[in-house]
Amino acid sequence: MSGGAADLAVAGLGTGAVAALSGLGVIATYRVTGVLNVAFGAIGMFGAYLTRALVVDLHLPGLAAGLLVVCGFAPLFGLALEAAVFGPLQSRAADAGRLLIAGFGVTVLLVGMASAIWTEQARTDAPDLLPNTAMRIGGVDVSAAVPVELALVVLVGLALAWFSRGGPAIRAVIDDRRLAELAGLPARRLAQVGWVAGTMLAALTGVLLAPQLRFAPETLTLVIFETLGVAIAARLSSAPLAILVAFGTAIVQSELTGVHLSGSAGSILDAVRSNLFVVLLLIARWHWARRSWGQDTGSGGTARSARDADVALVDQAQADQGEPGL
User: Fold this and answer.
1) What residues form the membrane-spanning segments (predicted)?
2) What would the pLDDT profile of 2-41 be if each residue is shown by its tens digit?
3) pLDDT band for position 259 (50/70/90)?
4) Does 326 map to a domain?
């Protein structure tokens, strides 16, 4: 690999680490609760704005503010989501469609609250909690934040693998929460752990990503939401595959900045490069929809609507997942 290509690949590691954390957060919640948390982006956005408010308005140290949001606000919000929204829905055996609608409702609520509290003005003053200095390794400039982000990905991946040792109990909660509770399994406690882990990783994703962007409530929510494709491409179950997809997509995105074409081809390339995680999300969704439609038509069914395809994505992931494991 040439020096320029190596520099670009290393530049993509930071984005890849954040995308991997995002994907692992979605998977963590899904593997315990069976809920595809489409509010992940909004939770990350709100966490980023809270951190900024603590630093800029209340003058707290950046690291302290980040820890307060990720380890304080996020777990409490996750418990609130489980207790007030998704727990009651699952206790009533709500289908995947209703759970998705609830997730989008939480997204609208958080974006509206952030816009009302902090306005819709685009900002560039999010505090950078990690070192922004550069160090040279093997002739390549590497941001000092990258090793920290890589370590976080490894730790989260290992934690998810350790937690997945309780496979049968977790699977029972996903299959039927009410029956799991009747069987004496700690269904609610497991669900709470899943939501706490997911919201903490969502907040961490927002806090790490915001300093790299010119952001507003809607735009930051969408940027984080794009990384949902990482979890979907990993079938909402495989942590190693999610990490591989995240870093692979980010590195390809970074390498494409070194490719220059003229005319309409250049415009298309720029659009694909800047929205590569969106492309990944669309491809992953298309794959799941095509797979579901193929099964339906093979059994005499008819083509589904887009909403039904999203529901089928969740249902098919549950069918493929089997007992949770790394």
Assistant:
1) 6-27, 34-51, 63-87, 99-118, 138-163, 190-209, 241-259
2) 557 777 888 889 999 999 999 999 999 998 888 999 999 9
3) confident
4) no
Structural domain harbouring 148: 3-321
Q: How many helices (H) and strands (E) does the chain have?
A: 16, 2
* Separation of alpha carbons 120 and 89, rounded Å: 32
Backbone φ and ψ for 257, nearest 5 degrees, come out as -65, -20
Rg (CA), the chain: 20
Percent of the chain with pLDDT over 70: 79
pTM for the full predicted model: 0.84
Q: How many domains does the chain have?
A: 1
- Residues 88, 83: Cα–Cα separation, whole Å: 7
* 140 bridge partner residues: 137
What is the CB-side half-sphere exposure of residue 47 using CA atoms within 13 A? 33
Residue whose structure tokens are 């308005």: 57
CATH code, domain with 98: 1.10.3470
